[in-house]
Structure formats: structure tokens, C-alpha cells
């Protein structure tokens, strides 16, 4: 890995300024990205919100509409951007992204090569991980998709950390200028085994590769190809389960997914200090909207030839 300069630190402007991108949080399942302009207006079911009232406020502020409704103004972190970005392709979500960043051993200063860019969900997190003096070079064969991703990185303030190229990595491989330069390589391709030989050439000694594939047949063929130049080959499937915890009674909360209720009964005190005869039940169940399989993550380390 490249050495990290401790004197070079990221700094963030925590106050909203004209031209900034904010994530407007309406409720847990309703968020949208909005560019702040002096005369801009946001209208939703909670009322009318003037952008001019937002300027100068800190990210995370609660702002009110003309009707007394409110929203929160959040900074466009990679986690939130993943939830609100335009889906030009199927994207990676937080569970897979965090696993990828860790197992690719990405730290500030790293050089990361990615193919393909898609909607840029992973790219955004990679950029934050390599900041402030690293760089992500991402490639997509689709010219319009690459242009849209480039615009998104401008909006989120990551253009200095990300370079978007148009290239068919499966057919042409990575550009020769990157030979031996990359700390990590990420592949999200229909036929990743075609790009693995090129990836082995652009990685530094002991560099790490990750290939994301939705089908186990793709994983099998990729692993066979990896054996030529890589070691420590491992494949993971990340499954994330979210739980909902609330007060209630078992009859009113039917468990639709067959999971078990976990309850803890507490005695409630009445106004005169005596315990109420009706217990309060705290229940937890697995959220029925939990995402299942997204894909398989295969990691491998380049063999040392020295």
C-alpha cells in the first residue's frame, strides 16, 4: 500500500451553500437529491420549501415549510448517495460495498481501477476511501453511461478523485499506462475471466482483485482463470438482515415472513405509582423488505514473482 501522509487531511464545509447538492430526507423510505439555488423551491406533500432558507444552515438541519411541515437536509455521503442516485444499471448496496472496501485493503493514497462504472454507487465509496491523495480510475464501455457518471461525480464533488474512461475492458484490457500501478482492481463484468489476465498486469506486487458476479457459474470460471496468477482466492456472499423493534402486542403485529417474535414484557406504572395490570411488550422481527442475494464477491491476491 502507498504511505499515507498524516498532514494531508480531508476538510468538509458543514454549511450549505448555493450550488451544493443536498439529500432531502422526507421519511425513511423517501429521500431525494436537490441542488440548492437562491431562487429554488421544493414542493412536496409537506408544503413549499424555499432554498434561500437553507443557505447557511448546517448539514443535518431540520427546515420547515409554509405549512409547518419539515424535512432534514443531509450531506450527500456515499451511503446516502447510493440510495438516491439514478439507476442506470443494477447497483451494489452498502453491505457489499463495505465488504469490498475492506477486503481490497483500500486506504488513503491508493490507486484503484474499476470496470464497469455503471451507476457509480461503488465508485463513490472507493473515492472517499482513497481520498485525499489517491485516485479511482473507472471504465465503462457505454459512452452515455460514462458521461452520466462523470456528471454525478461533479455534482457530489468527487471529480478530483475519479477519472471516468470509456473502454471495453473485457475486449481490450486495462490501458498499458497502468502496468504495475494499481493497488486494487474491481471487476463488475458479464465475463470477468476475460479481464483477469489484464488485471494481473496492472496490479502491484501483492495487489488485490475483486470480481462481482450474480451467478455462481461466473464465479467458477473466474476462479479457474485466477489460479494462473493469483493466490488466496476466496468467494463470499453477503446477506444483510434488518430488524424492526417496537412496542405493541403480538395479535396486532402479524409476522408475514415466518420469523420469530422476541418479546420482553415490562410492568407499566399508573399515575398513582401502582403497577398497571397490562404489560408493555417490546417486539422485534426481521424486516420483510430485507434484500436477499445480490451477488458473489470473489477476492484474490496477485502472486509475488520476486
TrEMBL record:
Residues 254-286 are annotated as: Disordered. GO terms for cellular component: nucleus; tRNA (m1A) methyltransferase complex. InterPro entries: SAM-dependent_MTases_sf (IPR029063), TRM61_C (IPR049470), tRNA_MeTrfase_Gcd14 (IPR014816). It comes from the Eukaryota. Residues 69-301 form the tRNA (adenine(58)-N(1))-methyltransferase catalytic subunit TRM61 C-terminal domain. GO terms for molecular function: tRNA (adenine(58)-N1)-methyltransferase activity. GO terms for biological process: tRNA methylation. The keyword Methyltransferase applies. It holds the Pfam family GCD14. It catalyses: adenosine(58) in tRNA + S-adenosyl-L-methionine = N(1)-methyladenosine(58) in tRNA + S-adenosyl-L-homocysteine + H(+). Keywords: Methyltransferase, Nucleus, S-adenosyl-L-methionine, Transferase, tRNA processing. S-adenosyl-L-methionine binds at residues 119-122, 140, 168, 188. Its main location: nucleus. It is found in: Nucleus. Its EC number is 2.1.1.220. PANTHER family: TRNA (ADENINE(58)-N(1))-METHYLTRANSFERASE, TRNA (ADENINE(58)-N(1))-METHYLTRANSFERASE CATALYTIC SUBUNIT TRMT61A. Belongs to the class I-like SAM-binding methyltransferase superfamily. TRM61 family. This is tRNA (adenine(58)-N(1))-methyltransferase. The lineage of its organism: Eukaryota, Viridiplantae, Streptophyta, Embryophyta, Tracheophyta.
Amino acid at each position: 500500500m502507498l504511505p499515507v501522509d498524516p498532514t494531508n487531511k480531508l476538510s468538509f464545509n458543514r454549511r450549505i451553500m448555493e450550488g451544493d447538492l443536498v439529500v432531502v430526507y422526507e421519511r425513511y423510505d423517501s429521500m431525494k437529491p436537490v441542488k440548492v439555488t437562491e431562487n429554488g423551491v421544493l414542493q412536496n406533500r409537506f408544503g413549499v420549501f424555499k432554498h434561500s432558507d437553507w443557505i447557511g444552515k448546517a448539514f443535518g438541519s431540520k427546515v420547515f415549510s409554509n405549512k409547518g411541515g419539515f424535512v432534514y437536509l443531509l450531506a450527500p455521503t456515499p451511503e446516502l448517495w447510493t440510495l438516491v442516485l439514478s439507476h442506470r444499471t443494477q447497483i451494489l448496496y452498502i453491505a457489499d460495498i463495505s465488504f469490498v472496501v475492506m477486503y481490497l485493503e483500500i486506504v488513503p493514497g491508493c490507486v484503484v481501477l474499476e470496470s464497469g462504472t455503471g451507476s457509480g454507487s461503488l465508485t463513490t465509496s472507493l473515492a472517499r476511501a482513497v481520498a485525499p491523495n489517491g485516485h479511482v480510475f473507472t471504465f465503462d464501455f457505454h459512452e452515455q453511461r460514462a458521461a452520466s457518471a462523470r456528471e454525478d461525480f461533479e455534482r457530489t464533488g468527487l471529480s478530483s478523485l475519479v477519472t471516468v474512461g470509456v473502454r471495453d475492458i473485457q475486449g481490450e484490457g486495462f490501458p498499458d499506462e497502468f502496468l504495475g500501478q494499481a493497488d486494487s482492481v474491481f471487476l463488475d463484468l458479464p465475463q470477468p475471466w476475460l479481464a483477469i489476465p489484464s488485471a494481473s498486469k496492472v496490479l502491484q506486487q501483492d495487489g488485490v482483485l475483486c470480481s462481482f458476479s450474480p451467478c455462481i457459474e461466473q464465479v467458477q470460471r473466474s476462479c479457474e482463470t485466477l489460479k494462473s496468477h493469483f493466490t488466496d482466492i476466496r468467494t463470499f456472499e453477503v446477506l444483510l438482515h434488518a430488524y424492526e423493534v417496537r412496542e405493541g402486542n403480538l395479535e396486532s403485529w402479524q409476522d408475514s415472513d415466518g420469523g420469530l417474535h422476541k418479546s420482553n414484557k415490562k410492568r407499566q406504572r399508573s399515575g398513582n405509582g401502582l403497577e398497571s395490570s397490562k404489560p408493555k411488550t417490546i417486539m422485534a422481527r426481521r424486516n420483510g423488505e430485507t434484500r436477499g442475494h445480490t451477488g458473489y464477491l470473489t477476492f484474490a491476491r496477485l502472486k509475488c514473482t520476486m
